[in-house]
C-alpha cells in the first residue's frame, strides 16, 4: 500500500536505496570472507615455507652426518701436510675421525702437527693418533719406498690426497729446462709415482679414492707461471685418464682446482734462475683462507665429486672464456703479460 501512494520516481529511488543497502551488506560479508580466506592462505603458505625450510635443514644435517660417517675411521694420506692447505686439511679430516698419515719433508714440523692434532678435543667423534712418513716427492725412489711405509701404518689406504707442490715465477726465455724439471718432479712425477705405488692395494680391495689438489692454472695458463701451469695441466690430464681406467675397479678420482689461497706458495716458489722467489704476491695475499678451502676439500672428498673448481668468479669465468672465446682469452693474457713485464724491464 505504501508503494502505491508513492510517486514512480520516489518508488524507484527507494528501490535503488534498498538494492544499494543490500549490495553493501553483501559486499561487507564478501570482504570479510576474502579477508578470512587471505588470512588462511597466508597461514598455509607460511606453514608450507617453514615446513620446506625444516625439511631442507634436516636434509642438510643428515647429509652432513652421512658425509662425516663415510670418512670416520678411513685411512687418509696427506702429502705436504706441514703447512698451508695441507695442514688445514689434516685438521678437518682428523676432526671427523679419519686415521691420518701425515707426509712431508720436515720430520720436526710433522711431529708438531701430530701433537697438535692429538691434543685437540673439539671433535664429537673418536679421533686417532696420526702417523708420520717423511720423504721428498722430488725423489722418485724415496717416494716409492715411502709408499710401502705408508701401507704399513694402517694396512691400507682409503684416501690419498696429493697436496704437496711447488710454484714457479719467471719468464720462459730466462728459465733453463732444469728448473722446469724441478717443478715437474715435485708437482707431477712425484704424485704420480706415489699414486701408482698405492694403487694396487686399492684395486685389490676394490675401494679407494685418489685426490689431486691441482689449481685453476691446471685449466688455464697465466703468464710467468709456465712450469707451474704445465705441471698442473699434466696432473689434470693424468687424473682424467686415471678416473676412466679405475672406474671399473671401484676407485674414485677427484681433482680440486683452487684459485688463490693465502699461503706461502709464492714465497717458496722457484724463480727462473732456480732460487727462492721470496715475494708474497698481492693476489696470493688476498686469496681465500686455507681453513675454508680445506672444508671444501673435505666436502668434495666425502661426496666423491669428480672435478671441482674452488675459485672466485673471475677465474671461473676465465675457464669458460678459454673454451668458448679462445681468441679473446689469448688477447687478455697477452695484455696481462705486457702489464706485468713493464715493471720488471724498467
Q: Determine the structural class based on helices, strands and strand pairing.
A: alpha/beta
Which blocks of ≥5 consecutive residues have pLDDT under 50? none
Q: CATH H-level name of the largest domain... which superfamily?
A: NAD(P)-binding Rossmann-like Domain
Broad shape: globular
Helix content: 55-70%
Keywords: Membrane, NAD, NADP, Oxidoreductase, Transmembrane, Transmembrane helix
Transmembrane segments: 40-62
Organism: Myotis myotis
Function: Putative oxidoreductase.
Can you put this structure into words, describing what you see?
The chain is α/β, with parallel strands linked by helices and 346 residues long. The protein folds into two domains: 74-311, Rossmann fold (3-Layer(aba) Sandwich); 313-346, no CATH class. It is 59% helix and 12% strand. Strand 2 (99-104), helix 3 and strand 3 (131-134) form a beta-alpha-beta unit. It is globular, with a radius of gyration of 32 Å.
Strand and helix map with partners:
Blueprint: H1 8-71, E1 75-78, H2 84-95, E2 99-104, H3 107-119, E3 131-134, H4 140-154, E4 159-162, E5 168-169, H5 177-205, E6 208-213, H6 226-246, E7 251-258, E8 270-271, H7 282-285, H8 290-302, E9 307-310, H9 313-324, H10 326-345
Parallel strand pairs: 1-2, 1-4, 2-3, 4-6, 5-8, 6-7, 7-9
Helix pairs in contact: 2-8, 4-5, 5-6, 9-10
Short description:
This protein is of the alpha/beta class.
